[in-house]
Amino acid sequence: MSKFKVYITRRIPDSGLEILNGHCDITSWEGEDAIPKEELMKHVPGINGLLCMLTDDIDKEVIEKAGPNLKVITTMSVGFEHIDIEECRKRGILVANTPNVSTDSVAELTLSLLLMTARRLVEGVDAVKNDQWGPWKPMWLCGVELTGRTVGILGLGRIGYGVAKRVRPFGISRILYNDVCQVSHADDVGAEFTDFENMIKESDVVIICCNLTDSTRHKFNKDTFKKMKKTAILINSGRGGVVQHDDLYDALTSGEIYAAGLDVTEPEPLPHDHPLVGLQNCVILPHMGSNTWDSRNHMAETAAKNIISVMNGEIPYGLVK
Ligand code: DGY
After folding, report:
1. Which of 10, 83, 106 to mutate to test the pocket of ligand 1 (most atoms within 8 A of CB)?
2. pLDDT the model gives residue 274
């Protein structure tokens, strides 16, 4: 019997490949950068499994080109907005992601980004490098404390929960959260459910930890920023598309909000001459929430296991509902 044919759209950690080796017939795109669409189209016909990245647009065209033997698409990410889920459903193709395994890394990065933004760490490091560190000054590079502040979290899934757990010991006064529904694990971290309007109005720090969906796209726009505190800090480690970036620029330059820290942007990569990049009160990271070897190895392993499960007629761990 011929082996399960799998196409992998990027070089992935060996620990993932080792799970597939010997069981599947693997072909991979060896580039460091995303596979161009026309290349992907050449490689998908006849495959049984596709292991893709969040940078690959797995639309109807790609799915159609792969043909009727395609049984599973697994993405090496939590986010799956780049896959046409509806088209997969119609064709009986299972879609899976890599939940859980990057939670700690992303939550740690989100906290780091919050501290970088609140305490103006990038400006401090730059000052040292650029010979702008003069004698101690009482009012130089002052930021804000987290102690006593209210933190609002949009999306109290695994990552939002991980962020809540880590921010609590900073002595914050309240954690508010908003999500599609109330979640029982909120009680473990003392997070109070509230509606979105109230959360943005009351919070000193607003952290976006949600997916990009039709209802979260550009949820942070000029109307939202008007309702936030002028002293508010916005952190986004969910998806760039949740924030309208032109409106964010206006809010940061007009003083409508105090600062922002973004690990995700729209588009990605954000051009280096994008107006937000030049702002001192905006810290931008290149989507590095899950960039730890721990997380990336586990992500590759989970994606590989998703493929093996489907090959064996089982439900994959990361099945996307
Ligand atoms: C994910 O897993 O969706 C992350 O954004 C990747 O870093």
Report:
1. 106
2. 98
